[in-house]
Amino acid sequence: MLIFPIVANLNSGSLITGSFAGAESSITLQVNIPCPGHAPLITEELKKIDGVISVKFRFPNLFDVSYIPTRTSKQQILSLDVFNTYKAAITDETSNEVTNQQKNSPESKGSGSSCSCGNSNKLK
Predict the structure, then answer these.
(1) Where are the domains of the chain?
(2) Percent of the chain topping pLDDT 90
(3) Architecture of domain 3-13+23-95
(4) What are the pLDDT digits (tens) for 27-64?
(5) Alpha helix locations (H) across the chain?
């Protein structure tokens, strides 16, 4: 229960070269594995995908996957053969590109918004 999850997170990053600052996205996968001992199997399969930057396992069955959306997609990640045996579902996702666009929009800076409906412009 302790050793396999630790092994799954060893060398969790891949060797992606180039400048991709702000261009990565991430998803959290909930994978129907029978025990944490299967985490290294899932992690290694995910790291084989071109464009996956890193994979981190969280007990009991969550995998945080960072990837470059111009190199791979959520659909490609979910189409791995291993997910035919161990079903996977996306439980959370983020995109730095969207976050950067929201940060740079006039509404998020608080300038020029004249809406009086009572909604705040805070990101949820």
Answers:
(1) 3-13+23-95
(2) 56
(3) 2-Layer Sandwich (3.30)
(4) 999 999 999 999 999 999 999 999 999 999 999 999 99
(5) 3-9, 39-47, 74-78, 82-85, 96-104, 106-109
